[in-house]
Structure formats: C-alpha cells, structure tokens
Amino acid sequence: MSDISPFDASPDTELGSALRDALEAPHPAAFVTRVRARMGVQGRAWEDELAGWFWQGLAAASLATLLAGWSWKQGATVPTVETSVASELMNGDRTGTEVLLVAMTEGRR
Amino acid sequence: MTSVDESALAARAAKGDADAFGVLVELHAPMARRVAYTILEDREDADDAAQEGFLSAWQAIHRYDARRAFRPWLMQIVVNAARDLRRRRRVRTTESLDFVAAASRDDPAKDAGSMDLGDRLREALATLPERQRLAVVMFDAEGYPQAEIAEMLGIPEGTVKSDVFHGRRALRKVLGSVKEEWDE
Fold it and tell me: Which of A11, A34, A42 sits opposite B140 (nearest CB)?
C-alpha cells in the first residue's frame, strides 16, 4: 500500500481492530476460571514465599535481638553477690574462721 | 487503559493476594491469548502458553518493579512461555505439522473465497516470520510503543519499525482484497 511508510509511528487502527477480531479467543470467562483454579492448586514456590517473608522475618529477628539485649542489660545491673563459705573463709574477717580452717586441714591429715 | 490501578493490584498480589492477581488475569487474558496465538498459531497451545505465563507471573510477582508498567512485564513472560512451548512442540511434532500444513493447502474449503476476514488474516499472518507477526500484532492490534516491543523481543527499535512495515504491507493486501470483495 502506498500510504504505508516505514517511518509511520502511529498504529493502523483499522488493521489493528481487524487483527484483534481475528485473534480473539473464545470463552474468556472459562479461561480466567481455569487460570484461577491452577493458581489455587499451584500456589507460589516455597522459595518465593520465603523471599516474600524475608524482610518481615528480618524485622522480627532484629526486634527480638533488641529485646534480648535490653533484658540482659537490665539483669546485669542488679547486683547478685553471693557469699560462699569458701570466700568467707578466705576473707578471714569473721571470727572463728581460723579455727575452722585449722580443723579442716587437720581433718585432711 | 483502565481505571484500575494495576500497580496497586500487583502490590497486593505480591503480598499473596490471589484475588488481586485474579483481577489482573481477567484484565489481561484477552491480550495474552492473542499474543500467544500469534506465536503458536493454535488455540489450545495458545491457551496453555497464556496460562503458563500467568502462573509464572504469579510465582514471580514479588520481583515485579511497581515503578514500571505491569502490562509489558506480564506480556514478556507470556511471550517467553509461548516461545518455550513452541520449542517443545516443534521437537515433538515437526512431521505431523508438516502433514497438517500440506493438507490445509490442498483443502478446497480453505479457498480464499470461502473464508471470512478473520480466516484470511490468520492465514496471512501464518506466512510471516514470527518476529514480524509479533511486531505488527503488538503495535497495531495491542497498541504497544515500538520501543517497548523492541525491549520485549530483545531487538533494536529500527528492526521493529521494519518488521511492522513489512508485516503491515502483507496484511493490508488481504484487508484490501476482502474489502474489494465486499464492495462487489
């Protein structure tokens, strides 16, 4: 056709409409139902599901780490000094410790 | 194209909303089936490929970049699915297709005079190389810009222009002759 130029950048609406009619597939609703049914059966690949949850998982893990760090810090600030018998004996401030130490060493012999 | 916000639907679909993706399927199914048919030239194969394309898109929807248009992203997946299917079919059925093609050429019912415009255009399309078919259908029938077609098919824009020109010329001849027949 003489009116067609290689540089024509606008679609040929008449030809386009005729082509759409010629290529139109029957039963559009049935096709959509078929695809939707397959989507339900197939679902999404597990690695894609995991990828989808990655950022949520990362945020949850960060929050959990922060909470754990905070609670650990809180626990560390409370003084929990336990006095054992050994430390009392080694200290030697209390009365009677010398007697007790001698008794213990005598007992070992 | 439509009043539906496709990016919003795609964003919902990316979060696993199957209903949102279902709306996108409904919107784009006619075009996907036409494009798949352009490549495969068989209704059943075209539907299989279009379905495969939609399911691949559903699986990859989280990778879709919402800043870009959804339609070309989806159509590229459909084109790839159709080309994959054609490759698989070609391996299995080369001989039988040759037989069918020869039979249809000899069939008197396929004479030009007994065919409607749709049949004539489909037959004319079948004589064109696949790339020309896709270029002219995507440009004239589906309204894609030439640059987008070039990106989808992985060819230079100048090649798309040339393919549209040659494809159009062949199809215009058919359209013109049918119109002449109608006028007689």
Answer: A11
